[in-house]
Amino acid sequence: MKKNPIIPYILIMAFGLGLIFFMSIDGADKKAEIAKGGKEAKTEQTAGKGETAGAADPEAIAKTKCISCHGDNLKGNVGPNLHGTGLSEAEVKDILTKGKGSGMPPGLVTGAELDAMAKYISGLK
Asked: 42-71: per-residue pLDDT in tens?
């Protein structure tokens, strides 16, 4: 009598699905704790750079919100080069708040992040 070669694969699949199911139940119970852990990690990263905990980190903001259009080093990609623009902080704040043309959406950066980003972008050489 021959053994069916598909049975081990079915058992592995069933074990994997069961594992995923039970891990997701465990993760759902710890949702608040997991979310809190991510925020603490970001605060520790910015505090490690000599900044106060909770302060806006313009480099981190640029890496999450700007590089998709302005490129890895913010020297242009789909969007323009942000180095040496000659724009004042007020002009940068205005663009970040209201957007510009059809390519730059408004409101990407708000609150305390807005001041930090305006200072950072206007200071890029």
From this structure: 554 544 444 444 567 888 888 888 888 888
Which SS3 state, helix, strand or coil, does residue 108 take?
coil
pTM of structure? 0.54
Amino acid at position 76, single letter: G
Q: Which two tokens stand for residue 95?
A: 């663009």
Token code pair at residue 17: 């699905």
**Which residue from 124, 114, 117 is spatially nearest to 82, judged by alpha carbons?**
124
Torsion sign over Cα 56, 57, 59, 65: negative
